[in-house]
Design goal:
This protein has a six-stranded mixed β-sheet with strand order 5-4-3-6-7-10, with helices on both faces. With 260 residues, it is an alpha/beta fold. The two termini are 21 Å apart. It has helices spanning 20-26, 63-79, 104-115, 129-138, 157-167, 207-231, 244-258, and strands at 2-8, 30-35, 41-47, 84-90, 94-101, 144-149, 169-176, 188-192, 199-203, 234-239. The longest helix is centred in the C-terminal third of the chain and has 25 residues, at 207-231. Helix 2 (63-79) packs antiparallel against helix 3 (104-115). Strand 4 (84-90) and strand 5 form a beta hairpin. The protein folds into two domains: 2-35, no CATH class; 41-258, von Willebrand factor, type A domain (Rossmann fold).
Length: 260
């Protein structure tokens, strides 16, 4: 984005664009106006931690599959219009960065990196903070940033999200599976944490247990949603049982409405 002009502040203007030096000299708030480059640079910050491997038989798709499909589709849509795309890949740390470029070969490089990436047998509990902080350091030019994750993480990533959104246009894409919210009654089962490997025996036939499980899941959903709203980022959910194209159209429609 190139600086084009200055004008007096008007209600509704983004306060991040206030020019404080001019404001102090003229004793009137002024904001910077920018002329955007026609080319968009988009980055995908991709959470590939073990919890993203989860998927249920009912949906017959893992969250990781949804992630790959989403990135492939959106990256191709962006590059077909002459835009550039790049990616940061995170397992238990950011271990690969693909600099932004345009064209079909760039999309194929990102997709190949995802498809050939070994699955993680286990890892420390996910901390999304380093992924977001790396994005803030690595991405120099103002960009459109898609964070694709299930956002199952230790606390603290919310501050990093807010900091990233101050410099870039951020869209949070949350990967979900229906069984992470509502357990079916299938009797006694052993559940295993996909990251730590910890196992627990539960009786899904216990109605009270299923209610507590759903209440905890709903509380987690609400907390993540609140974090998105506080940071002021656009957010969408991608479920393993949802049509991808319909989800992308919904995302585009919501973003268009917010900008009117």
């Amino acid at each position: 984005m190139d600086l084009a002009d200055l004008r007096e502040y008007q209600p509704g203007d983004d306060v991040r664009y206030i020019d404080w030096n001019v404001t102090a000299r003229l004793d009137t708030p002024y904001v910077r106006q920018y002329a955007e480059d026609r080319e968009i640079t988009a980055w995908f910050l991709l959470d590939l931690s073990p919890s993203v491997e989860f998927g249920t038989v009912d949906a017959d798709r893992e969250k990781r599959t949804v992630l790959v499909d989403f990135v492939t589709t959106l990256a191709r849509l962006l590059t077909r219009r002459g835009n550039r795309v790049g990616a940061l890949l995170y397992g238990d740390h950011v271990d690969r960065a693909i600099p932004p470029r345009g064209g079909r070969l760039q999309v194929l490089q990102i997709v190949d990196a995802l498809l050939t990436r070994p699955r993680m047998a286990g890892a420390p509990f996910t901390d999304l903070g380093p992924l977001l902080d790396t994005g803030r350091r690595v991405i120099k030019r103002r960009s459109l940033v898609f964070i694709v994750s299930d956002f199952i993480s230790v606390p603290g990533w919310e501050r990093s999200l807010d900091s990233l959104n101050r410099r870039h246009e951020v869209v949070a894409v949350r990967l979900v599976d229906p069984r992470e919210i509502e357990l079916p009654d299938v009797g006694p089962v052993i559940l295993e944490d996909s990251e730590t490997g910890e196992q627990i025996y539960v009786d899904t036939g216990d109605r009270a247990f299923r209610r507590r499980f759903e209440a905890a899941a709903r509380a987690r959903e609400a907390a993540v949603g609140d974090a998105f709203r506080r940071a002021g980022v656009d957010a969408m959910s991608l479920s393993t049982d949802e049509d991808l194209v319909a989800a992308i159209v919904r995302m585009a429609t919501l973003r268009r409405r917010r900008r009117r």
